[in-house]
Design a protein that fits this description.
By secondary structure, the protein is an alpha+beta fold. The protein has a three-stranded antiparallel sheet. A hairpin with a 2-residue loop joins strand 1 and strand 2. The longest helix is centred in the middle third of the chain and has 10 residues. The protein is extended, with a radius of gyration of 17 Å.
Length: 110
Amino acid sequence: MSDTNDKVISLFKKSGQNVQNSQPRFFKGFQYLKITKDDNGNYFKEEALRDYAKRCFYIVTVMRNNGIGVALYKYKVPYESLLNFLNEFKNNKSYGEVIDIERYVPEDLA
């Protein structure tokens, strides 16, 4: 993993007309953006977004101490199992610390 932030983007920078209000909004202490349209200016379609999400996976990186140091374990977790997977660590049912979650989009979805 790289220590540089070359590929990091700020989600909270103004990014055009599709972002509602420029004032920061919070839900239960977490900042969020409301996005109503895609990059082409079209409104999102609920069914299309659900279908897309169901075909995506998440690569969850877990750090564990293996006795001589730490090791990283990368899990390919389907969309519908992501919350259950994370709850295993939240409820201390599984050993390790989640350190990264990355969305994996199969190439045939493009």
